[in-house]
Amino acid sequence: xxxxxxxxxxxxxxxxxxxxxxxxxxxxxxxxxxxxxxxxxxxxxxxxxxxxxxxxxxxxxxxxxxxxxxxxxxxxxxxxxxxxxxxxxxxxxxxxxxxxxxxxxxxxxxxxxxxxxxxxxxxxxxxxxxxxxxxxxxxxxxxxxxxxxxxxxxxxxxxxxxxxxxxxxxxxxxxxxxxxxxxxxxxxxxxxxxxxxxxxxxxxxxxxxxxxxxxxxxxxxxxxxxxxxxxxxxxxxxxxxxxxxxxxxxxxxxxxxxxxxxxxxxxxxxxxxxxxxxxxxxxxxxxxxxxxxxxxxxxxxxxxxxxxxxxxxxxxxxxxxxxxxxxxxxxxxxxxxxxxxxxxxxxxxxxxxxxxxxxxxxxxxxxxxxxxxxxxxxxxxxxxxxxxxxxxxxxxxxxxxxxxxxxxxxxxxxxxxxxxxxx
Amino acid sequence: xxxxxxxxxxxxxxxxxxxxxxxxxxxxxxxxxxxxxxxxxxxxxxxxxxxxxxxxxxxxxxxxxxxxxxxxxxxxxxxxxxxxxxxxxxxxxxxxxxxxxxxxxxxxxxxxxxxxxxxxxxxxxxxxxxxxxxxxxxxxxxxxxxxxxxxxxxxxxxxxxxxxxxxxxxxxxxxxxxxxxxxxxxxxxxxxxxxxxxxxxxxxxxxxxxxxxxxxxxxxxxxxxxxxxxxxxxxxxxxxxxxxxxxxxxxxxxxxxxxxxxxxxxxxxxxxxxxxxxxxxxxxxxxxxxxxxxxxxxxxxxxxxxxxxxxxxxxxxxxxxxxxxxxxxxxxxxxxxxxxxxxxxxxxxxxxxxxxxxxxxxxxxxxxxxxxxxxxxxxxxxxxxxxxxxxxxxxxxxxxxxxxxxxxxxxxxxxxxxxxxxxxxxxxxxxxxxxxxxxxxxxxxxxxxxxxxxxxxxxxxxx
Lengths: 423, 463
What we know:
The structure holds 2 protein chains of 2 kinds.
Chain A: H1 2-11, H2 15-19, H3 32-37, H4 44-55, H5 62-70, H6 77-80, H7 88-103, H8 107-116, H9 120-137, E1 138-142, E2 147-150, E3 161-162, H10 170-173, E4 177-178, E5 187-190, H11 194-198, H12 201-213, E6 217-220, H13 229-233, H14 237-252, E7 258-261, H15 264-277, E8 290-292, H16 293-300, E9 313-318, H17 321-326, H18 331-339, E10 343-346, H19 360-364, H20 366-382, E11 387-390, H21 393-405, E12 412-414, H22 415-421
Parallel strand pairs in A: 5-6, 5-7, 7-8, 9-10, 9-11, 11-12
Antiparallel strand pairs in A: 1-2, 2-3, 4-6
Helix pairs in contact in A: 1-4, 4-5, 5-7, 12-22, 16-18, 18-22, 20-21
Chain B: H1 4-14, E1 19-20, H2 23-27, E2 43-45, H3 50-62, E3 67-70, E4 87-90, E5 97-101, E6 106-109, H4 115-124, H5 141-147, H6 154-157, E7 164-170, E8 176-177, H7 192-196, E9 205-212, E10 219-227, H8 230-242, E11 249-254, H9 255-265, E12 275-283, H10 285-301, E13 306-309, H11 313-331, E14 336-339, H12 349-362, E15 366-372, E16 377-384, H13 389-408, H14 427-446
Parallel strand pairs in B: 2-4, 3-4
Antiparallel strand pairs in B: 1-2, 5-6, 6-9, 7-8, 7-9, 10-12, 10-13, 11-12, 11-15, 14-16, 15-16
């Protein structure tokens, strides 16, 4: 029991944040996990009550609480709609760090977060090796979507339909870029992010093509590290800080006006979480300078939706939660889709909602993640659009799995790829 | 605590996956939206069929297990806080709209259907289900009936009880009791449906509800009027009604609430105004035009500094955004928000506002008041921090004082939040002991073992 007292003491730092919840329960209307399970411990109000209960020594088993706190997509929809403004993401990230500090991580997580992730070169080498051999284990599932599935019963892959690692990641196709600002008078620092680099290099190439077309200079240094969200969301504050420090030093060395990324999750992490959680200097990388690429294109470059009477192809657009909820970016990706002149946005029936990816949530809670994702796939299918698009490679991965399994056999593109096609 | 064999019996009825006994799961059902002490139940069950629901009730009665039925758990008076050693029965898996009848204007629903989702389905058929409690995005219709929930449209359209045509419910033995009818008129037997309304889970467990639907208004007009005197705003309310105009909605915000909302949203409210009235009239287009201009004139006669009439849907949305912002904005000021709903005859609103001002001063508390001026249902909202024990004592005294004042003005303890645990100790002040004894006798016959949400409404447990 003395131990529980120590944990309760550690959780006291959350008390002021937790007390803000007035337990109105309106988060029940927002939470994708609660929508599936109907259980109070799965909705934000319940999770906050559990943390509060643990900190007041009303509960005796922190393992049960950790399991519930981990059953969250960190999509931020509840926070964006919370009447009393509870800082939900902040609470959950801090709680995960506290609970991990108290209970420890699994050996596999320790290896990944403490030994591998903080070393970009090692990660790149390991994944290049995997890319060579992945064909041995997988077979094609849906050629239009570009998904694969396991050739035999594999524990981690299970029945996933996944997108394979790129044969040649972006950092090997374009190791680094440093071009001056052209006619636009602007120069961006470009942070592709891990998934763009290793799985969707085409998204990175599309971004570079767009910058060239609009005469925007690019600073893309070699040796970029992960943005840190996998570490932070697993409660690994030290690994997170190490990654942020590497990136902050790398980008502070260049001259640029805005730091842009094509990944909703990276943008949200860099914008909101770097300043909040990094213990140390961020150099020149300050919040006001960090943007999603579509936001930069529309708000800074002034690209406009193309107005003409031609027949246009509808595009089913999925709002990534980290753009919609965290960054409040919903109009810019839509404008960019329509800016090419050939596409028009088809809204999903039922409005925007999480795709169920949630990063490591997908690994830990694959069944729930799938239930949420298949519903998203059906919503995309219901638009009858011949192509789907989004602004986040993590969502693209989840959509690949879900749409392939639901036989919604249409290509899944990044909005940047759609726009770049017209240049 | 139900033993293992009893747990197995419940699991056989609702399925193992619908029985929760883990410490964390139980803790998550130890509260609702009321600011009260938490109590964890011994078990939570989530039946997926009506039949299973009935058998849960029967099992509880046979084994002397206290049963608290829970929809979304948004109750503001502790009505869904369970008993130590008791069972919580969730209705949210019983969420089917069974019928929407456009010819006879009724709907049949299971108790766990979410209010706003139901209203949207009804609207899609071109009809209206008017009750719109503040928690409608998540609240269940079963909970709305059990609490007789109100809402913004109550002035013209009434509250939940005005839309309940029938309730099928399980008695404590798990027998299904039918009551009410799909017809407009029905005098067959006692009005048991009426008895179930506002029964707070103490008399029966709802299985099915028959709800009345109405045609929606063809036109709507909203406006916002600013006053530099609370008395004038309140007089305006009385004059509008006296002019034989019944707005669908007639809402009030005091200066503290106005300032807090403006600080929160920055939508350009006049923070100098002592009070705002937000008014919506609806009906036939010609009548709406007529009513709106009369209401505008009445506001001006009573010294309204500025009356803004919404010209389009966007402006109308802006008017109601201000009202919807009231609670969220107030809630952000301090950690704990105590939302009361003492209600007075509408002519007594100026007196009630005076009294609230005095109470805030006397107990040195911050109270923001907004609410349904048209029906006298104010929401004095005390902004505090429950961790400040000395201040919390003053909050409790202030709540007592608010109830005393409301009753002295000929009002009632609760307009729409229910009695539950929070207000049962005040019941005798409003109705005297005879009403409580009558109710207790009635309950003792229908629920002889006192398992149905005991201790709620009628005060301490009957022994």
